[in-house]
Hints:
Elements: H1 2-18, E1 24-29, H2 33-46, E2 50-56, H3 57-63, E3 71-77, H4 79-88, E4 98-104, E5 110-115, H5 117-123, H6 130-148
Antiparallel strand pairs: 1-5, 2-3, 3-4, 4-5
Helix pairs in contact: 2-6
Amino acid sequence: MKKIIILLASLFFISSSVYAAEGLITKTSSHSVKETMDKLEKIVKDKGFNVAARVNHAAAAKTKGLTLRPTEVLIFGNPKLGTLLMQSNQSIGIDLPIKVVVWEDDKGVVTLGYNDPAWLAGRHAITDREKPFAKMTGALKKITDAAVQ
């Protein structure tokens, strides 16, 4: 019984430190939001991904007289890979292209977050595309690790 409790506590700790919300992978950045996003955008473009948009939520809030700590989203993808996933279930189109959010919390900590491809596979009940999801998982890990370092 003691081993089961330790195992469950360990799994809870590990999952809570990696996932801020269901299916969200988060990483702490050693840079500002802008610097992190600039690095991410450059890496993504250098790797040949299509960048659909970069959204600065804080700047948009300011235009309406509101304040928001720095928060930006980069939307990018690979149509060849995304199309394979949509051929299995078009509902995944709501989650594609990929979105990566970078924000600064009230303590000044900068965090990068994105949807775990495995979570997306489950969300959309896609069971026939293991290789594309594995490729997406590996690419996102490498890209986001580089952006936060």
